[in-house]
Amino acid sequence: MNAPLHVASFNIHKGLSQFNRRLTVHELRERLGNLGTDIVFLQEVQHSHGLRASRFQHWPGKPQHEFLAGHVYTDFAYGKNCVYDTGHHGNAILSRYKILNWENEDISAHAFESRGMLHCQIEVPGIGQPVHCINVHLALTEAGRKRQMAMISARVRRMVPDDAPLILAGDFNDWRMRACAYFKDELGLVEVFETHHGKPARSYPSILPMFQLDRIYVRRFHIDKAHVHTGNAWHRISDHAALTATLSPV
Predict the structure, then answer these.
(1) Residue ranges making up the domain that contains 239
(2) In three state form, how does the secondary structure of 152-189 look?
(3) Number of domains in the chain
(4) Angle, nearest 10°, between helix axes 142-159 and 179-187?
(5) Model confidence over 101-156: pLDDT tens digits?
């Protein structure tokens, strides 16, 4: 039997605490390093921000995805989504395994809310073909999300073979719980918490999770475990809770 694959998805709120009061990226790197995950899907990753770099004394000297990778994750990819005068942020994937190639596709629903779909192919030992990993952070409006889910489906049909292992993770902002049925019907994807625990994880706000916004969808994997990371140590570093899952290829 192939070794299980450990994955995580986390909206890191640009490495800042809720309301941007504290720099949390150093605590975040320690926690990510201790999770024991192989592939991490991160949203709201700050590549650069001139004003915050001058405000916070210990602001990293490199982009957050590189800083968070540290000595644990040897490969990483970053998709620039939102650009402004002082810098830009987007999605990132960190991996212990080789990222063979990656592309960031613009899936913005309108000019005032920049969004991207970061798609990596990762060479995972014991799995005979590349694992397709797609990281997203969807729109705040239902109309925008509907368009973006259609774009995700179109890319998967175009770029991912039917028999290839696939992980789609991120912050879906899916307040009305539309995405699970949509991705199951359109792509044969299942959500790990819904499959393992009966419903998607409550992940927002992290101090008292009520909303099921963050998801991990998979295809060609068996779900061994699924866990949402809450409690004081976690809600101090982001307004979202982190999700982890243990997956076995089938």
Answers:
(1) 5-249
(2) HHHHHHHHCCCCCCEEEEEECCCCCCCHHHHHHHHHCC
(3) 1
(4) 20
(5) 999 999 998 888 899 999 999 999 999 999 999 999 999 999 999 999 999 999 99
